Amino acid sequence: MIQMADIREWRTHDVVDTRGHRIGDLEAIYVDTSTDQPFMATVRVGLPTRHRLVFVPLDGATAGPGYVKVAHDKALVKQCPSIGTDDVLPAEDEEAVFRHYDLPYEPGANGERQLARR
């Protein structure tokens, strides 16, 4: 797993899939609130006048010179629920992001979010 200090250096760099296809630019890192470890990233995708942010898990991600390679196909990532570039993921939409990647969703005992932006 990529460490938080390492991945922060890659903001605005390319995010590519396992075949090297460019998905978009790394925008932000989200940590799992139970472990405070990097868990997902948002990737800026779309046309220059119509950008949006999609989420991609960081499990299996590797960093290279000028890019972060994720373990998910470009088409799958681009179909993920998205938010606007100035928006925040609403708590009620968080589970849909996890479902998109077939990941278990486990909010806190009192309904706390599983993801937090760092």
TrEMBL record:
Question: What Pfam families does the annotation carry?
Answer: PRC
Q: Which domain of life is it from?
A: Bacteria
Q: Which residues form the PRC-barrel domain?
A: 7-75
Among InterPro entries, the record links this protein to:
Bac_photo_RC_H_C (IPR014747), PRC-brl_dom (IPR027275), PRC_barrel-like_sf (IPR011033)
Per its record, how is this protein called by name? PRC-barrel domain-containing protein
